[in-house]
Amino acid sequence: MGDREGMVIPVGMSPVQTLRLLRSFPLNHFEHTVLAVSKETVHHGSEIAYLMGYEGTDLRQVRFERVEELIGRLPSDVRWNLMIGPGTKHMTIGLWAAVINATGVPPRIWVDHRRRSKSGNAIEGEFVVCLQDQSNRYEIARVEEVEACATHGIGIGELHGTDGLTWRPTDSKFVYKIEVPPGIKGMTRQMAREWEDEVITKVDGLRRSLGRHALEVAHEPLPSSPLYWLKVKERLKDLGIRGGSK
Amino acid sequence: MTRKSYPIRLVTVIAPNNPAVTLSSMRNAISSLQSNVKSSDVHLPERALILCDAETMKKTNIDFIVEEAKGIRINEQTNLSVELLEMPVINSLLQDDFPYLPEDGDAILTLPGAQIHFALLLDRLHRGSNDGQIQSAFIFHTEPDGQSVQWKRLEYDSEMRFAVDSMDFEHISYDSIEWIMASCDVEYTIQSQRFPNSKVDDFIKMEEEARVADGNEVTDAIIELAGIDEKSSKRTLAGKALERVAAYCINRNEAIGSVLLNVEFAGESKMMNIDVKREEDIIALTKRGSLIYASCKFMGRRTNRGRRSIFKRDVGRMKTLVLPLNFPKERIHRMIITTTPFLRLAEGESDIIVTNLKGLDEALKNL
Hints:
Chain A is of the alpha/beta class and 246 residues long.
């Protein structure tokens, strides 16, 4: 490996995923790396390129619609690989077609994979794996808090200044734990509803700025009575916000 | 796709609790070819392979999906023939044997499986094409907004290199509201009540033009129009009447495919051994594949402080409303149908549509 290999990797709305996948490969693994961005992820791509540095690989950022043109200009003996996971399926399909049309050969496909225990913890780590030859795999690299914030275009102060929001480097996720205010049991139905709306607005904002896949959200236990708290819990669950009752 | 080969078999992966996307993806694939390619040029795929893992089988009504898929018409004589194949759960996807054996003319549907499923299917296709078993293969993708679909065809070109050509089609939705509702425990009424159009239009005009002092007249008129004869407060009756009239008005709009009323979702929680349920007034599916959650608020004529506060709270609730339905969020639109004086309280709201009955047709036009 190392000679005349190229990798096309999309940058989606959870860009830290792209960074950690790229970091997992040994230096010089790919002679050419193409960061395929959409108009929504251009700025994320620039941050990733900056954090990766340019040493050891020809790293280029390009709109995903123009990848075919770019690959067509690069040496024709490069063997191309495609990372499937980050970005939308629309991007994935476009990149797959772009590599084939530029080279006449389907790309080798890589994915990231981890086995999870029932409690959600990773078993045997998380790997980036080449599907054509599964012995060709690398353990996924950690991304530290400061880099995660830079990739997402937020300051570290913003992370630390948001109550309940932390970075978990083991699986590269932001974790937002919704804190239940003191005296919650005494809240009226209307107050409960207002609290719920505030929570939802906050989570919506975080999901927009950090990406859905890079953020895990849970709430502290909610009261199980009066009845309206059960409805609040159901509605939060519909939004992918889980947590217990007490 | 007016030359060369055509798809022979559809290949899809089921996601948990998502029968609607699985079924509509298959129907969209067939229908897009039926409606966009001259029938003399194309033969349609008559077979489908559905891959499903044991975890998904536990959480999903697979029999329903298979039976509904078998009901998809290819032509007047033929329905889709369906094969179900169990695949490893996500945890074991790379360790255990992935059972998909590609065939020439396979068309991979990108929805609703996960990216890793799509990657594995593509990898198998590549291997099949390298071995010479596969001369052509296809990818079919429905965009998340539901407004267009895309076919990609992988084939050898004249220089015996692989090439991908593509065709994008404007999308006419082949979703079904029953398929969407099949993903959860829900009870509903299908909108079927009819009202005389002239009387509905007279009421809409009257409601829009009524003054503050005409409040009782408007309330009585909508109760009478809806034909509600129950013992309850006028406000409650007017609320129910608005739901029924609004559902009728939505249903008569040409953009609408189907309308459900009083949709009651079962929750997991119980209170005193009674299930906690949540109800939404109206859910409608447009012919272009958008799903509308509509809440009806009969607020009368007076916009006093108390009513303003109630209305604003409802606007806030609708903005963040998420229902336990598996449906692309890009295609969900939230709507409040209310009385005319309250429209101005929601001016500038961009996340939801707030309308009176008069503005309903305009609001539905582009959905």
